[in-house]
Amino acid sequence: QICLSLVKLLFYLAHSPLGSIVLLDFQPRQFVMVDGNLKVTDMDDASTEELSCKEDNDCTLDFPTKSFPLKCSVAGKCEGINEKKNLFNAYRYFFTYLLPHSAPPALRPLLSDILNATGDLRYGINETLRAFEKVLHLYKSGLYLQKRPLLLKDYIPLKGFRAVEGEDYKCWPSYSHLGCLLSIHSAEEAAAICNSQLQCQSFIVTQHRTWTGRPLASFQSSWTDLIPDANAVVYIKRSAPSRERL
């Protein structure tokens, strides 16, 4: 969410009515999340000026660990230097820390492609935004789940109950520090996640949803502590130990 919001912001800056705007003091502390959108807190160090040049050799974009040769335009300006400076800063301050860690395994290669392409500045802001929107579409639609075995049949649905909230085993990247609370597309995906975790014996799809509209599922190491809830369904693993079988 943070990275996509940042890319949308940089897309606007690259195509603003004032021209391409560069953020000269590009640091994480210069941004804040407001209602799920990333905002710049200080525009004092923003500029629309692009580096003047006479030849391509005048247009090297330098960072502490990398340098990028750019083209000198007919107008005597380094082509796209503001856009590329913003994008590489987004890569080194945000993408490298946030993109590799929390996506479903099937989507990680696509995010890795974005990471590598922006890190080498092979993508401009237009291509980067399109790549992010493709991943978001796959994530929200569940298309990344195609051609997977059906595992929900290995679970017994117990309607009208939910688990008591409390500490349980933890997983990454959980939405709760007390247990294992993950975003899912469907109960079928939750069953696959539960099967992949040795501690998991049951799960419940909650009424809570993430910013993409996906429900959250709570994964549990047992199903013995249940309370009535007319709107809930607990899914219990058929292979649970006999003392915990329904």
From TrEMBL:
Xref: InterPro entries: FAM69_kinase_dom, PKDCC
GO cellular component labels: extracellular region
Instruction: Spell out the Pfam families in the cross-references.
Output: PIP49_C (PF12260)
Identify the keywords attached in UniProt to this record, alphabetized: Kinase, Signal, Transferase
User: Hey, what's the signal peptide range on this chain?
Assistant: 1-19
**Gene Ontology biological process:** skeletal system development
Which molecular function term from Gene Ontology is one that the record holds? Answer: non-membrane spanning protein tyrosine kinase activity
Stretches assigned to the FAM69 protein-kinase domain: 2-116
- Residues forming coiled coils: none
Protein name as annotated:
PKDCC kinase
